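Ticket #4471: structure output looks truncated?

Reporter: J.K.
Steps to reproduce: submitted the chain below (157 residues) through the standard prediction queue, then opened the result file.
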Amino acid sequence: MEDMKEAIRLMENLYSVERMVSVMEKEPKHYGTEELLYANEVHTLKTVAQQEGITQKELTDKMFRTKGATSVMIRKLEKKGLIIRKEDEKDARVFRLYLTEKGKRVHKCHLEYDEKIIGRWMEELDFSREEIEGTNQVLEKYISYVEKWLERKPGRM
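Returned output as attached by the reporter:
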């Protein structure tokens, strides 16, 4: 029974973190450009940077979005000059995504920003290595479980 109480406490904490992150992501920031960018935009850029040439479908799956939401995001990022869409050489129906030079600058600034913020959190919260590793292990198990559940879910995106 105690294990169940702790598991429920963990889920409640995950929901709290989700809500807090949602609030934080609504505040746009400058990432090396004059325009303000939202966390959703820079995290999309990060995914494209990690997998240059990713297809729209792959991006949709990786970001847990709908096809429509991915299309809207891609258009926004294209309009801001951060990504380009190129037709696949073998299949004209498939588009691959790449960062522009401006997109690469924004991505670099985003990584630097994250490192600065995480460094400050590490200092202020004084986490031990064991606490961080243990939390990561729990979250990685949870993420893996949910990813498998989503793959089995009928009509998934």
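Triage note (M.O.): checked the attachment and the full token line is present. Residues 25-126 form a domain with the Arc Repressor Mutant, subunit A fold (CATH 1.10.10.10).
Status: closed, working as intended.
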